[in-house]
Amino acid sequence: RAACARLLLAMSGVYQLEPPTDGKVLLTTTHGEIEIELWSKECPKACRNFVQLCLDGYYDGCVWHRVIKDFMIQTGDPTGTGKGGESSFDDGVPFKDELHSRIKFNHRGQVAMANTGTRDTNGSQFFVTLERCDWIDRKHTIFGKVSGHTIYNAIQIGEIEVDGDRPVDEPFPKILQTEVLWNPFDDVAARVKTEKKEETLSLKKKPKETKKLNLLSFGDEAEEEDTTVTTFGKAKVRSVFEDTNSEKGGNSRMVTPGSAEEIELLKKDEEDRLRLRRERMEKQKEELAKDAAKASAVGTVDDDPVGGFDTKMRTDVNHERAKAATELAAIEAKDEAKRLRKDAKAEKTLKKATEKNAKETQKLKKLGIGKVMVGRNEAELMTGKERARVETKRKRANVAHREAGLLAKLAKFQSKVVGSLKHGGGNAQTGAHTDDAEKRTSDGANGDTTKTRDGATGVARFVPQGLYYAEDSEDDDDDAEDWKSHALTFSDDKRKDPAAHHASVDDYEVHDPLLEKGKGKFAKRGWGEKR
Questions:
Q1: Strand pairing of 142-146 and 110-113?
Q2: Measured distance CA(56)–CA(183) in Å, rounded
Q3: How many alpha carbons fall within 13 Å on the CB side of residue 144?
Q4: I want to staple 487 with a disulfide (CB 3.0 to 4.6 A). Which of 28, 367, 428, 442 is the partner?
């Protein structure tokens, strides 16, 4: 709905740019009516010419002689050739173009004057556009537009079958009648009817005058002369098919059927046909003899022309068969190569899929989540969705079993750690609450260094292998199982707030301007340069 609204808005913007029309003409065609609204104020000459020709009936019977689908249909030439037609002005003189900035070929249904390809050559021919065609803007005078649903009749004319741009099927589309529904010009009226009436009056035959010969003294002689002129003065026009020999004994242009002359002419015509046939056969024999002579020169055919011709025909047939067999073998080889490539590609794809499935299976096995397949007998009794649901349930059961096993291993590890702490961690627990110095002294006096190990005091650092504490002594020779009985101890912090930052002299760097300028006692030692 929003897209339709945007389209209507865009179309309304296009049509709002055009000025209002003033005048209307109705064309009745073989494909229906076409209603044309005129811009008589913007293009007065073109509209006056069009209205005058419509009133005169100039366009009645004009064929749509040029039809280009999705572009335009053109008419207005009484000759139907596209080279005729005159304007309604004096002596049919072409009139100038009338171009308007607000009237363009920006939508279908625009009615414009056709020209000879140059400016100011407008006559009687006009065309109706079937689509938007911006490339002919300001090249033709647009004097009107097709209104309402009658544009579809014009589009229907544009759908007819053409050869190039000329209609091919009869009856050709044509204008049957034109009617001016709204004449914007008060001084324009029909002219053809008046001219025809005057011409009809001028062509009427005058009544034949009867001579009154009885009033003349020589009336009898004059009457005899008129009778002679009436009888012999005007010869009768005869057809070429009439026999004049029977009447006047003159030469006839036609032969009398069944006469000796006709028989002689037919005989002569038959002799001529036989002579031409013999000459044609002699010529063919000469050509065959020449071909046989050429073939005998290389020793491939006999001297007999007929035999040489047969041999040549057989040779040509064998050659064509061999050529066809070669082409067929090439096509079969090409198809075989194509099939082999297709099989190799399918095999390669299957191999990749198999390897991928094997890798995924191996990965799932390492994780302990192998896909549980349904047996063949069970699968035959299930649909695809049921089989997938059963496999999912079994897979979840395996995952749950794996989680239970993992939790059992963690519980076992926890019990082992707790047992080791209970077995050898008594001194570590008590030593954590005693003074570090006293513990070190007592341990040194007893010489016992295997039960507990004091943690090294220092700064904890992170390395890729994990967290460690820097210490001075090296304990690389310790047993891997001793980590369970080790304990970390640190010196007590006497500050009120142990979490507060402990400032150190090493955390600061002193900058003395006097030392930098060389006025201090350390300037001679090069302290500033060292810095």
A1: antiparallel
A2: 13
A3: 29
A4: 428
